[in-house]
Records
---
Amino acid sequence: VGLAGVDVLAALHREAFDEPWSALALLELLVQSSGFALLAQGEPAQDGVALPLGFILCRIAGGTGEVLTLAVLPAARKQGVATALVRAAIVEAVSRGAEAIFLEVGENNDAARSLYAREGFVLVGRRSAYYRRSSGGSTDALVLRRAIAKVSS
Ligand SMILES: CC(C)(COP(=O)(O)OP(=O)(O)OC[C@H]1O[C@@H](n2cnc3c(N)ncnc32)[C@H](O)[C@@H]1OP(=O)(O)O)[C@@H](O)C(=O)NCCC(=O)NCCS
């Protein structure tokens, strides 16, 4: 996804999260040289337009990858879209030199936790009351890590 795509990412994020990130916030993450976003799109319709279904935003720093956010439209869920995005992001992170990938996930986010566990992420830490809602209340974040197997030459 190039910089022109941030409005699409912001719209997807708004559909997926109660407290969405602005296009500007997404842009600031994307313009970092270490940042990248991958967009999933549906099959093109008769008019040739393929609707965006979801995206993943990551960055790489010092050999470590980080998933910053992952969002799939409610109507497109449970069809493997997020799984495909996570797998593609791992491939991209490896090509950019990452040796491990970290992320934070809400303790109560069963859908995301199940997906990450299936994709090889393991629990390495917990951040207490990491997600604070503007409406009050908070949720712990679990810190997950996926090692990347070294390919011997
Ligand atoms: C989490 C999210 C990205 C998953 O997207 P998705 O495209 O539905 O994921 P997939 O179709 O690839 O499903 C992956 C697995 O998640 C699991 N899953 C999906 N929804 C689930 C639910 N409500 N409860 C428990 N497990 C669930 C399934 O085990 C599924 O595996 P399966 O295909 O073997 O059954 C999506 O629900 C979402 O956008 N949620 C809101 C934003 C969010 O929480 N992002 C993650 C922040 S860390």
---
Amino acid sequence: VPELPEVEEVRRSLEPHIVGKRVTAVRVDRADFVVGGPLDSIIGRRFETTHRHGKKLFCILDDGQTILIHLGMSGRIDVVPREAEILSHTHVILTLDSGQQVRQRDPRRFGGMWHYPSFAAATAAEITDKLGPDALQITAADFDVWIGQRGHLKPRLLGQRDVAGLGNIYVDESLWMAHLHPLQIVWRIRPAEKKALVKAIHEVLRRSIGMGGTTLRDYRNVSDQPGAFVRELRVYGRGGKPCKRCGTTLRSATIGGRTTVHCPVCQRRH
Ligand SMILES: [Zn+2]
């Protein structure tokens, strides 16, 4: 499942192909895949910039029309020459005046495309109060919302309301790096621990972005390249193996329906 680093890698690898390029044709194979479609109004417009918040990727055209791309579970954005064979599960094709096409395919269709008349309309609809600040932008003060709250740390981080963009992989990695237990009650987290958590989140995300993200199975960037961060994972997928810090056997448990791996010695609850 793409998390923040993978969406950021898609954004970075997509941007040079689309910015300044004009849309010359649009093909939508599944009408229900494009919300607010049918996208005819973007024909003739140029892409001006891109923006990411959490796992949401916005592509903004020169008249403000905005397309939100959600990659879902196994969604892919491909940039290919117009002549390239159309692979199955390709639902949207945008032809550009460069001769290239941006294609979104999604075998499991948890993703999609949303069309908005303006960037303001897009952010108003998408960056609601259910979505916290972007994980790369957070500060320790953003976690002051935990004061007096009884929730557990990992479910709170996965919930997107406190911080946007983190999923199972990067939460487990960040908690291990910050020495925090996944089931730590949030109101008891000390100010120094909030700082350590922010530092860990930023470090894990930045290192993953630098390596093109994490590919477990499906994820590729727009040039069909997988991410290499999987080699760097310290806890995710390592239940039963020794902690890379203290050698203790890592424990695997199900928390909030998600497999969670932590070190019982390095990450203690208090
Ligand atoms: Zn340990």
---
Amino acid sequence: MSLISAKGSQAKENAQKQQLDLKQEYISLKENESVKVRILGAEDYVEYKAHGSFSHKIYTRPCSLQSDCPLCVASRAGIEEFNPLKARPRYLFAFYVMDEGKVKLFDATKTQAKKLIASIEEYGDDLQELAFNFKRTGNGKDTDYSLNPIIKLKGKDQENFDNAEGMKVDIKFFEERLEAKLGNDDYMVKLLHEAGFPVDDHFDAELVAKALEEKDENAEVTEVDDTDINDVV
Ligand SMILES: [Zn+2]
């Protein structure tokens, strides 16, 4: 067994990854809150697979896409109660948040994504001039997000908008923020245990032992406000 887990560029990448404060990287809005955004490109969104089930208190966890992903294992265990943990597509949108001068991600359900994509396409030819109000309305399953063009930008807003001129978002931007949200296996097993899943029957003893030692500190690092999760099939 090696005590070194990564070398050179991989180690550097890992070190940088931990510096991402997810709260600063994702847009999180409360009911009736909004932010002004600039959409840098008409295709600045990606699809990924995530697990989530509100009733199990497991909120939007990216799937590692590995066969031993603990949440995949649970969803396939043949226990009906845990079937809803099956990985489903979710969507990440990159928006330039004008007041913060920073590109952030918004994590959307499929229904929310369809609507946002329709808005982006509707105004696709005008993204160079048009800023949007990105707003949340409603709560729980009635949560809705909308992008509405701002007809006229005033002083400081125009300046903030112009600051993003020429900026682009690449796939790596999405990947890094998604990876930072990927919890480790022990933590997933801990969440499953707390949700009442028989972890001893489905995971090896060493992993379970490690999982039960997991501190909640991990939660702070990986937990993002997911009050808008849609617990639907
Ligand atoms: Zn999975």
---
Amino acid sequence: MPKRVKIIPITGPSITEKEVKYVSEATRNGWYKNANKYIGEFERKFSSYIGTKYAIATSSCTGALHIALASLGIGKGDEVIVPDITWIATAAAVRYVGARPVFADIEPDTWCIDPRKMEKKITKRTKAVIPVHLYGHPADMAAIMAVAKRHNLRVIEDAAESIGSLYNGRKTGSFGDFSCFSFHGTKILTTGEGGILLTNNGRLYKRAYFLSNQGKSKKPFWNTEVGLKYKMSNMQAALGTVQLSRIEEMIGKKIEIFNWYKERLGDVPGIKLNAERPGCKNNYWMITAILDKKFGLKKEALMKKLLKYGIVSRPFFYPLSSLPPFSEKTNNSVAYSLSPYALHFPCGLNITRSQVGYVCGTLLKILKLK
Ligand SMILES: Cc1ncc(COP(=O)(O)O)c(C=O)c1O
């Protein structure tokens, strides 16, 4: 890459003086009698925002998924259905509890798990499904909940990427037995690293709280089970609380960024951007394009070309079933046909309209459309 090219990063947060001030306050005061103050505040406000009764703030969404599966008693000999296209954390958590992730195909427009194909993967061993609201688009929760009910399966929503997205007017993360969000630095709301586990079920909350607290009983230092430890710190929670107070502004910016891309690329034959199904609101966390095979450019080659112009892009997830830790033959033809030609473009919360114009212009030049 020539030295003078200015790099446009793939993603990043929006941090104001408000965040800095509140985190400083938590750093000074979040001890002794205030040791849980900011965590409690964040949990209350976040669960109220999504519309669930209970919350446990965690150090990551991966940790939240692990706690959810452990709390449901899922383990060795059990199967859990996950989409073939997602971040590895969804399936890794299934492995953590000793169960087997089973990979189902995705829908061609939303890129989320296909409820019909999910149902076909159910066996006697299936205990749960983990739909993922991929890149911010809600999975088809009505159909998924109906399948789960028919087969008596638990539902854990992996809402890592979908803060504020709506399905039939209801927030993603409010449907399942549990739901899990990520506040990793790439997410719209960030706490640096972090996550949260939500539920409406008091019994499940109790079990999750107990396990997430190292299996501590009421008697001090008397642990009755080997539990887990994925806690969020007060300083992170303070950051999350201020970020949450700005969430609609930040989601609004994401939608604006998507619209800048749509203006330039939306009508270009052979380029397919993120969808938004009727009845859904997409938070457009990750701007994505699926390119027609006719361009003869696979995602890795295109990423290299874009980088020469200072544009950092990111590959659409590889099907998990194709990765070495899983390495399974599947019939997930949609996942396998889309993934090689799909990638993500810069969409950090500080990106400007002219930078998006530069990215789109460069892409069109590379594709020989300009
Ligand atoms: C779909 C999905 N699930 C789970 C995770 C895991 O989140 P974390 O990095 O907070 O553990 C991510 C993170 O990027 C994700 O995108």
